[in-house]
Every structure is written in structure tokens, then in C-alpha cells.
């Protein structure tokens, strides 16, 4: 059973309505202690188990600041440039419109499994500790996973995404994105646009297409090439034993390699799809042609 530690009776901009246990009066603050204007409305619920403390926050207008507590919080921004921090617990933070800043946890060592959703603005999203799911949506976003195995998606816009520690999934989406896996065994998918993919330490999978640059860095990496009509992919640091896979379209059957200026150019049915820098001795036998049937048969 929840005890009411804070109460929201109206969602008017700037209304902060709080009530303590018992017969305390509800108070409204139209201006915070800094004199910068009204604070956002919020609702705090507390269960007998302190781990289930919840904070519900909503910003309707203006630039708001919402800070969660030790429990599982739901914080939602509004039309302004909002700052949202979940604190401990498994939190959900939604920036909506504006250029928002969202922190899943207060510090990198915290372990909440948070859901962060940006919006159409240029957002700064940091999951920090825990296994987080972070989505930038529209705009040119900066996304950090932190510790844990994170799922990070940029969406439309030219995004900058880094996984940091853990085995992360990074997806750039549309736009010219910069993806860095960090440590751990990461999967990087550039999506549409001219992207830069950096695997970092660990055994990474780098998936790119026309206009993309793929740099595995340390570890035993795998490069997956998704051919398209508007250019070729570039692999910058193929090491001995690392794999290259090329996705075949309907009717694609012949894979070949040409040596050119010290590099290896991979061709699919005579059309260049990728260039491997400094790999003049690469042969077609070292490259795998993957069909849709092969992908369907692969273990999940």
C-alpha cells in the first residue's frame, strides 16, 4: 500500500504541489530558490519498501529540472530545454521537444536499468550504470551508454553515440553518425548516411554500407557490408583472421576482389561495394557472401 508523500492536483505550468503524511496543507511554489521561475510539477509515491519509492514528474512549459529518487521514477519533459536525472532505480525519462539533458543514474557506478527517450531536439542522453535503453529520436544527439550492456539508438539526425563499458548495441539510424563501442563485445550498425564506426576493445561486429568508414580497433572483429547504390564502405584496419561478410541481394552471385593502390576492392557482380585499406593481398575466398536465407538460418 502506497503512502502519499507528494501530491499533484493540477498540471499547471510551474505548480509544485506537495503534501506530507497526515493533515498537512498543500503548498504551491511559483518560483524556485534561484529566482529563475517556477519549478515543474511532481508527484512522489512511497511504499513500505523504500526500494519502491517513485517520483512522477511532468514539465508542461519552459525549461524544467526534474530529479528522481532511489526508486523507479517516471520523468517527462515538455516543450523547453529540460534537465532530467533519474537517480537510483530503474527509471523512465522522456525529454519530448527541446534540447534536453537526461541522466539515467547519478553516477557511472550506479546500476539502474533505465529507459531514456529524447525527442526532436539536439539531446544529451547518458544512461550511466546498468543495462540501459537510450533512444535519441530526431535531432543531432549525443548518447552515452556507460557501464552495462546498453541498447543505444540515434534515430534521424547526425548523432554521436558511445557504448563505453559492456556489450552494447549501437544503431545510428538516418544521418551521418559517429559510433564508438568502447570496451566489450559490441555491435555497431551505422544505418543510412555516411557513418564512422569504431569498435574499440573487444570482439565487435561493425555493420556499414555506402559512405561508411569501419575501424575495428582492438579485438577479433567482424565486418558486415550492406551494399547500396550510393558509394562503397571502407574498412580501415582488417587484421589477420578477422571476417568480412557481404550481404547479397536478389540475383547477386559473383564475389571478386581487385588490388588497387595497395588496397583491396571488393566487388559484387562486378560492382565495387567496399574498399579494404592496406589489404592488397586479400582474396575472395576470405570473404563470405551472405544471403537472406543464410541470415534466416543463422542461430538467434
From TrEMBL:
Listed Acidic residues bias regions: 23-33
InterPro entries given in the database record: Hemolysin-typ_Ca-bd_CS, Hemolysn_Ca-bd, RTX_toxin/Mannuronan_C5-epim, Serralysin-like_metalloprot_C
Ranges where the record places region Disordered: 23-46, 122-220
Recorded GO MF terms: calcium ion binding
Location of the protein in the cell: Secreted
A Pfam family annotated for this UniProt entry: HemolysinCabind
Record-linked PROSITE patterns: HEMOLYSIN_CALCIUM (PS00330)
Domain of life (superkingdom): Bacteria
Keywords carried by this UniProt record: Secreted
GO terms for cellular component: extracellular region
PANTHER family: S-LAYER PROTEIN
Protein name: Hemolysin-type calcium-binding repeat-containing protein
Species, as recorded: Paracoccus isoporae
Amino acid at each position: 500500500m502506497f503512502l502519499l508523500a507528494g501530491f499533484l492536483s493540477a498540471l499547471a505550468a510551474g505548480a509544485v504541489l506537495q503534501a506530507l503524511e497526515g493533515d498537512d496543507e498543500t503548498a504551491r511554489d511559483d518560483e524556485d530558490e534561484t529566482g529563475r521561475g517556477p519549478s515543474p510539477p511532481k508527484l512522489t509515491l512511497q511504499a513500505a519498501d523504500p526500494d519502491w519509492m517513485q517520483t512522477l514528474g511532468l514539465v508542461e512549459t519552459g525549461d524544467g529540472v526534474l530529479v528522481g529518487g532511489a526508486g523507479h521514477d517516471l520523468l517527462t519533459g515538455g516543450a523547453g530545454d529540460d534537465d532530467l536525472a533519474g537517480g537510483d532505480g530503474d527509471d523512465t525519462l522522456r525529454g519530448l521537444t527541446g534540447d534536453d539533458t537526461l541522466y539515467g543514474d547519478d553516477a557511472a557506478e550506479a546500476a539502474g536499468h533505465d529507459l531514456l527517450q529524447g525527442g526532436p531536439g539536439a539531446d544529451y542522453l547518458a544512461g550511466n550504470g546498468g543495462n540501459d535503453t537510450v533512444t535519441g529520436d530526431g535531432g543531432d544527439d549525443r548518447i552515452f551508454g556507460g557501464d552495462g550492456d546498453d541498447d543505444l539508438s540515434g534515430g534521424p539526425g547526425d548523432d554521436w553515440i558511445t557504448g563505453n563499458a559492456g556489450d552494447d548495441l549501437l544503431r545510428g539510424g538516418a544521418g551521418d553518425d559517429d559510433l564508438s563501442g568502447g570496451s566489450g563485445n559490441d555491435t555497431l550498425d551505422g544505418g543510412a548516411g555516411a557513418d564512422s564506426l569504431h569498435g574499440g576493445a573487444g570482439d565487435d561486429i561493425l555493420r556499414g554500407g555506402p559512405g561508411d568508414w569501419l575501424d575495428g580497433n582492438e579485438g577479433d572483429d567482424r565486418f558486415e557490408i550492406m551494399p547500396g547504390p550510393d558509394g562503397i564502405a571502407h574498412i580501415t584496419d582488417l587484421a589477420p583472421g578477422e571476417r568480412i561478410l557481404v550481404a547479397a541481394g536478389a540475383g547477386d552471385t559473383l564475389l571478386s576482389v581487385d588490388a588497387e593502390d595497395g588496397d583491396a576492392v571488393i566487388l559484387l557482380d562486378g560492382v565495387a561495394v567496399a574498399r579494404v585499406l592496406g589489404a592488397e593481398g586479400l582474396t575472395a575466398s576470405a570473404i563470405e557472401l551472405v544471403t537472406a536465407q543464410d541470415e534466416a538460418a543463422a542461430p538467434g
